[in-house]
Amino acid sequence: MVGLASAAGLVGFLSEPDPELRVFALKTLDSQIDLLWTEVVDAVPQIEALYEDESFPERELAALVAAKVYYHLQEYIESMVFALGAGKLFKLENGGEFEETIIAKCVDTFISLSAAQRPAAGDPSANLNTSFPTSGEGATSTSASLTSPITPFSQSTLPSKSLLSRQEVPGLDAAHPGGEDVTVKHDETSLVLKRGVQGQLQAVIERLFEQCFVQKRYRQVIGIAIEAKNLDVLRRTIIRASEDENKQHGESRRSEELMEYVLDICMGIVQERAFRNEILKLILELLNEIPAPDYFSIAKCVVFLNEHSMASVILRQLVEKGDARSLAVAYQISFDLYDNSTQEFLKKVREEIAELVPEAQPADINKTESQEEPKESDPLLQDQSSSEQSRSLGSNDPQAKLSDEARTAFKNILDILDGIKSIQLNLEFLYRNNKADIAILNKVRDSLEARNSIFHTAVTLSNAFMHAGTTHDKFFRDNLEWLGKAVNWSKFTATAALGVIHRGNLSQGQKLLQPYLPREHIAGVGGSGSVYSQGGSLYAFGLIYANHGGMAVDMIRDHFKKATEEVVQHGGALGLGVAGMATGDEGIYEDLRNVLYTDSALNGEAVGLAMGLVMLGTGNMRALEDMIQYAHDTQHEKIVRGLAMGMALIMYGRQENADELINGLLGDPDPTLRYGGIMTIALAYCGTGSNKAVRRLLHVAVSDVNDDVRRVAVLSLGFILFRKYQSVPRMVELLSESYNPHVRYGAAMALGISCAGTGLDEAIDLLEPMLKDSTDFVRQGALIALAMVLVQQNEAMNPRVSSLRKAMMKMIGDRHEDAMAKFGCAVALGIIDAGGRNCTISLQTQTGNLNMPGIVGAAVFIQYWYWFPLTHFLSLSFTPTAVIGVDQKLEVPFFKFHSNTRPSLFDYPPEQQVKAEEAPEKVKTAVLSTTAQAKRRAQRREKQQRRESMDVDQTPTTPKVSDQLPEKMETDEGAEKGEEEAKEAEKGAGEGPKKKVEREKVGYELENMSRVLPAQLKYLTFPDPRYEPVKRPTGGVVVVLDKNPEEPRETIEMKASKETKQPAATAESLQDRLQAAIGAAALQTPQRDAGRMPLGADPTAAAGAAAAAGVLTAVDEDEEGGEEAPVPEEFEYESDGFEE
């Protein structure tokens, strides 16, 4: 149709009484509305009147024309309402701008209405009965939250664009959907309700959903359903996708991917905890209805929902199936449960499974009552299982109907859930593949004066991190003179370092630390040794059994209750906390609280921290009330700091349930409690990426009057955003240039925590300039953060690694560098080579869950600012990067898998060439090129003379200066020729490696139990036809299905468990060495049990271990004439009042 010049005539037809003329006018206007809408605007009331006239035959056409006019007027809400009134005339499939805009508004309105109909979810957190002295921020006032610039944490004045991050405001009318964002959503929803077009809106949405289903765009519908909080639509979409797939007789992979997508959305985007749990329950229900369910997704949901009963039911069903694949899946789920669950959850699952195998209960659940001390050294699971099975053959239990295979499987599952197998395999991997560069450690030791306690501690920490989990403690045994300079808390830290080095060595942990443990209760032993080594040994014992508990908790608890020295109580509290992490044990909590009430500043900080570790993530209100009350009553800042950190740990992962505590702590006038409030935000919302948490942290970072609070506020951004680490550099870029050095330090550590192990270039770009910062502790933070970012990076992955390593080595040897920066440099050199270069720092597990020990370890590690021994907690964040395949017998078969990359891409960094001595060399005498020419002339004259007279040898004369001057131009030419040769040599040297890289073959074989970096996993394949992994490898322990179990196979021997570590030897064999190293006081070490030493054990290692034990257990506080060098006065801290 030819375009009309004017709409005046058509508008006039709208007033005609003849309906046909009005219909003609509307049809013509509809086709030409984009050109004529400006003239039709005045006639909108007439068009609306036609729509409202029920006798008019083309009401829907009138609504469509009105909708288009309002669209051009940018009145999109009115346009949407009339478009809904147009019914089928509004065509979704047209795809024009008008249709897309109306569809978008319809979806927004549907989301608002649907979310408003859903009641405020959640089980409200119990109220704290302890009132804070000052609540300047109005902890419970909703009205204040909407007006005050400093709002309560449970509210938001700047709502996110996504409804998922908005909070429900109690008391709002249901007619005002959208929660507190009433001004945004009220108009459109109220207009829809007023016009009564909800049915039309639902019809449009249903048409839109059906269109998506036909086009297989299920993810769009899922997104709308989750945003609208409409679980019915979500259920219908997943079921429809599965039905469509079955009709096409396709594989089930698409529905599995859809489930994974829903899980990712649920855990990564949905921020309301109660709604997230409802989605997970729905997913769990749907997964169980599928004929061949995805058990790994079910297990993930079970962990998120804390449904321990369902976990035990799944494991029982898989074992009872009886086939090899089901058994392998059960073992794999057990390994995943151990990696992703708390001790409390695992204990409940073990108890329920143990009911099926009653005779295994005392051995697996209550080990301390059924095992004698010598059985700690039994490393093999099969030995334990067989002994238990033999003990129970005559049982008349009703559960005896289980087959022998099922009984063995349940016992193996109990061992896996107890962590024995995972810890043993990781220990073996780290022991076998230790690639720590001892030359770097020696360089650090030689560069730092051991008499200075901060430097001695720095070397200790560097050694501990570099050899974490490897059981390689040779550095201590080879450096007894250096070790002997450890006094007071340096000795405490050095002894605790043994726990980091031997972490996971469960079978020999007690025997290793026996010389250091408090020995008052052992008959026939006189003298108690140094209280610092005793306290450090209890701390070390906890680190060895970190997050494992068992017999270690009872043993440490026994020593803790008997201890009278505050230093021993300090170490015992830290050991109890780290070994009994997240157990929720009320008995341990009571013991710790009793010591807390003695009001000792020295042990109070550790006790407050340990109370939080034991109650980690439980949200225990009674414990919080006790801690808040005592924090207000005590006068000791150290105790308040420990309690503040403990309260933050109790609220780990609680999200909005922690808001009341956060408000109270942040409103307190005591900056230490405000510090605890910030840490509570960091731990309660860790890994969520919560917008409101980020806003609150940024607000405190620029507004609080206390530097410590501002520093930790910036630093805590790393905990909130580590799953979205790419956004952190941009967020802290300006803060890293702040005038306040504490804010700069916080920005550096936020980058280190969030980007750990990623090698992110943007993070390095911000951290590298900080190495030249004018403030020493900012340089310290930058060094540690760089090491965390660059851990396990080589030059092929990140070319700047080698230059930064050289910069660290240069800084550690610089005599003019500040002590704080050198401390950070030493710690950084240990972190970057963590675990013998086989560990990364990870705050989430391989399956994407929160890594609870890793997050807690990083959170406590940053408290080293106040207390150096807490630095050891970072070892909890070290995650071995390996693929360890085990078969259905839980043995490690020997097989190879393929990595489709160049070998150099993920290879170990080369060992650094460190000069042993860098003494100043003698300056060589300058030799001029003219002198060289003169010598050559002299040699020519000498040869000529020899030819003339063979029987006379004349002494060559020294050329005169005047003889050299005419040859000046020749020497310049020689020099130029030499420079050209040097350039050619450099060019050749540069081309050599390049050609080698180009010729490097792509693809290579890796043996089982090899290092595999997280970035390398996607390149792995398993070509071996015999062994097939039961799930896609994500790192860690992978159960492989042996397709030919009857054929002979080769297994990998567990060397780490069989190698016996010797802490001490007989005094007669070591007397001379000990006398030279530490004096007669060291000879009080207990004798070893000669029968426990295997054939082939290294007597030198045993001697070194005994000597090291003697050094650390020697009492040094009161010895005036001891051979150890005294610590300078200004470095003796916390030693007053603890003389023996």
Automatic annotation (TrEMBL):
The keyword Aminoacyl-tRNA synthetase does not apply. GO terms for cellular component: nucleus; proteasome regulatory particle, base subcomplex; proteasome storage granule. Residues 366-378, 941-950, 965-977, 984-998, 1043-1061 have a biased composition (Basic and acidic residues). It comes from the Eukaryota. Residues 133-151, 379-395, 1094-1114 have a biased composition (Low complexity). The keyword Hydrolase does not apply. Pfam families: HEAT_2, PC_rep, RPN2_C, RPN2_N. GO terms for molecular function: enzyme regulator activity. Residues 1115-1140 have a biased composition (Acidic residues). Residues 6-118, 194-434 form the 26S proteasome non-ATPase regulatory subunit 1/RPN2 N-terminal domain. Residues 952-961 have a biased composition (Polar residues). Acts as a regulatory subunit of the 26S proteasome which is involved in the ATP-dependent degradation of ubiquitinated proteins. This is 26S proteasome regulatory subunit RPN2. It comes from Aspergillus thermomutatus (Neosartorya pseudofischeri).
